[in-house]
């Protein structure tokens, strides 16, 4: 085939790839590969994602004054916020620093008052005696630590499931922070999904057993951090901090532990991964799904097929097939 025909064929293939990027059209190609070939692609994409998140963590590390516990704390709150409220949770971690949490560690009610009070969310709900005590306690602690209360409008509350309400999450965080010693060391020692589940098996403070929102009583339900949320904490917090810290201290052992943990965790369950899996079982582990998320956000979303490892392979295959004619 002459050069002009090859260029035209390459252009048509690239156009098809870019046209299919919105629905991850290269999923069929990935599904056709042998597992080992697919893993080679996933390794490249997976490490790209880890390196990108590592840069985000190091920015927080610099912001924190090179303080790893504060960095971990900011990442903890950000991850607990999920897609809807990660930035609001991060703003809260800046408003109530980890140093203040440590100074009140023997008093879970003080930690809860600082976190929930500083969120500004209590202003949206009726006040019963427990909530009034929280507010009074917060006023004292805000003056003690110069905490500036956030605006309630910073939070996205529409279509939030009750179990994922920011106030409930803050109460779970309170229990975790108050009752977990050597948090950073404990986190760095996690080597399996079960280790992470045990670490984050926190419940709310007792009041919330009969409340989903302030002053609105419900039936008694234990509202601990569930397995799905724990898996997300493992993927988006534990692994990321572990990987970043391994680079910081130069520990290959810690780096390998982070990668092994990703392989031990199930793939995320969301609409993006579901779409990839519609072509076949492309995401079995969290490492697989992280690679596919990197592909989705960094390449497919902006139709960067010519720069993408999958797109380049497809274009190279077209060229090889033409060379055989």
State the main characteristics:
325 residues; mainly alpha; two-stranded antiparallel sheet
Strand order within the widest beta sheet = 1-2
Summarize the biggest pleated sheet.
2 strands, antiparallel
Q: How many strands in all?
A: 2
Mean pLDDT metric: 93
Order of helices and strands: HHHHHHHHHHHEEHHHHH
Low-confidence stretches: none
Rounded to the nearest angstrom, the radius of gyration is 23 Å
Structural class estimated from helices and strands: mainly alpha
Termini Cα gap: 7 Å
Give an account of the 3D structure:
- It contains 16 helices and 2 strands.
- It has helices at residues 3-19, 27-32, 35-63, 68-80, 82-95, 98-103, 108-119, 129-145, 166-179, 183-188, 193-199, 227-249, 252-264, 271-277, 286-300, 309-324; strands at 211-213, 216-217.
- Strands 1-2 form a two-stranded antiparallel ribbon.
- A hairpin with a 2-residue loop joins strand 1 and strand 2.
- The longest helix has 29 residues, at 35-63.
- 38% of the residues are buried.
Walk me through the topology:
Blueprint: H1 3-19, H2 27-32, H3 35-63, H4 68-80, H5 82-95, H6 98-103, H7 108-119, H8 129-145, H9 166-179, H10 183-188, H11 193-199, E1 211-213, E2 216-217, H12 227-249, H13 252-264, H14 271-277, H15 286-300, H16 309-324
Antiparallel strand pairs: 1-2
Helix pairs in contact: 1-16, 3-4, 3-12, 3-15, 4-5, 4-12, 7-8, 7-9, 12-13
Briefly summarize what is shown.
This protein has 325 residues and is mainly alpha-helical. It has 16 helices and two strands.
